[in-house]
Amino acid sequence: MNAILDIKGLRACLRGRSENAYVIDGLDLTVQEGEVVALVGESGSGKSMTAFSILQLLPPAIHITDGTILLGGHDVMKMDVRTLRQVRGTQASIVFQEPMTSLNPLMTVERQIAEMLLIHGKATRRTAPGKVIELLELVRMPDAKRRAKQYPHNLSGGLRQRAMIALALACEPRLLIADEPTTALDVTIQQQILKLLLDLRDRLGMAILLITHDLGVVAEMADRVAVMYAGRIVEHGPVVELLEAPRHPYTHGLLSCLPAEHADPDERLTEIPGLPPQPGSIRQGCPFAPRCPRSDAICTEVEPAMTSDGASHYKCHHPWTAP
Amino acid sequence: MSSNALRIGRFVARRLVQAVPILVGIAVINFLFVNMAPGDAADVLAGEAGAASPEFMADLRERYGLDQPMYVRFLVYLGKMMTFDLGYSFRFSRPVTELLLAHLWPTLLLMVTAILFAFIMGIVMGVIAARNVNRWPDYLISTGALIAYATPVFWLGLMMIVLFSVNMGILPSSGMETIGAGYTGWRRAADIGQHLIMPALVLGMYLTAFEVRLMRASMLEVGEQDFVTTARSKGLGENAIAYRHVLRNAMLPLVTMLGLQIGAMLGGSVLVETVFAWPGLGRLAYTAVFQRDINLLLGLLFMCSLMVIITNIVTEVAYRLIDPRISME
Ligand SMILES: Nc1ncnc2c1ncn2[C@@H]1O[C@H](COP(=O)(O)OP(=O)(O)O)[C@@H](O)[C@H]1O
Ligand code: SF4
Ligand SMILES: [Mg+2]
Questions:
Q1: CATH top-level class for B110-292?
Q2: Closest by alpha carbon to B275, among B170, B124, B201, B173?
Q3: Confidence band of A269 (pLDDT split at 50, 70, 90)
Q4: Is the pLDDT of residue A108 over 70?
């Protein structure tokens, strides 16, 4: 298998604050062709910034200081503007968290999708409308012909997210990055959208980097899971191993506070005592130490390195033992 | 398309109907205010004639209905207003409606030019400033706008006359066209255009500065919204993002503010038309106030209310044409 995405040692810094305010701090992450990788972690752990950095869409306040991001084998950080624009949408594209605000309110759905097809030469002005309908039908937009002519405000959140997915898929990217695509939607719609994403993966064969804080979603969707904390990956592995036998105390904490019947979707992963650290607040040692039930002296002194044990990979001095 | 035109037509008709009670209300207020000032037209006419006998005064008052109780005068005024009969101007010895129409076009020309100038400059300069934020074009434009914002209109008008008319002699200092030149067609248009430059610039200066600052802020704010990141993630270039996605969204507050600024501009036109002897409603208003020409003054106020109402309808339609989220219904 080939890696469509291979991030190594990524560090991104928040400009204007103290020099060590890293929102991404030594992150390694790979996604193979056709694979669904879930990136999980509490709010503020840097998931969105990781996603944005892949297509160089970081906000102006944040800039990358170290590392490489290989997308389809090429380093996006070494690309000139033209190449980068060409890569956006064709190699990888993003579905954002907020369907309410991520589409232009003054443009019809058709124009927004057609624009993408046109700039990448995937359609002409004459063929674009037909192609847009096809895409909307692909994401099972009901009444696609009529919806295409409508504006985002005419669509419900779920339908907007479908339009957003159609847009992201327009140029057949090899990697679809979905940044909490269902967080803003209600439960039944969430299930439909997730099912749609899996379906599309099976039909189109693209890889998906699914960002979520919902471990229930992870179990249903992902092949592999990477757990993110304070701007770095603290544990990753195949979904079954990771969910059944988490090694890192943070993963363990996330899992044990998952409601048995995860019925209430509004209940976020806030049950681990304490708060995640602010960027720049960690000087040394394990970033999870202040909240970790297993921490001891060495944890606050030395940051643990990534350790591999079979299929599991974790950064911890005192991991939970494999069963 | 035609159904769209129909929707706009219905919208405008509805707004006009809604405006009728407003106009009546304005008429009441206008009338009361003007009648609260001491003295009437007969006093003024008599005063200018030097001396007048009480009989002559009484005769004047009776002739123009000034001896009637106030509510009678008001009802008469209201009834006539409905048929656009705004009475007779004693000073000009002409019907008010005729006077208003004669002075309407110069003012419209002046104001529309000033507004278009402000709107276009606002967008162009605002976009340049926002796209070069915190670099020298931005500093230049922002500072310029701030200075223009703080410059008194009458001072600017006089300085421009001194510079361009008196010293350089390249622009006419007063009037709307060269008297007695007898130009026709394009030659006349060019002549009027030359007379128009300074008053329009002075009148539009404040609004321009305002719109530049608003557009800059609006571009920067819209530029941070999520859909702009979406546009970037599609592979669009920065120019396409700015002009296709950000610009139209950023224009919305400008259109709104334009509707609100028209009233202020009517006030400004009194000043500018007086300074530049522009034969418009503003100068007419100035004359009417100082000569206690009550009928004319009432007509002018009525006319201004009408203009404000119409501009507001126009901006509302424009806003709805740009933003599909606000319906015509
Ligand atoms: N536009 C921004 N400017 C400055 N800091 C930001 C911005 N967006 C996010 N951050 C900071 O970056 C960190 C990571 O945020 P994010 O990647 O959005 O987290 P997640 O997606 O995991 O919830 C947070 O500490 C957040 O405060
Ligand atoms: S290294 Fe120590 S503090 Fe960090 S997660 Fe492991 S046990 Fe907890
Ligand atoms: Mg996020």
A1: mainly alpha
A2: B173
A3: very low
A4: yes
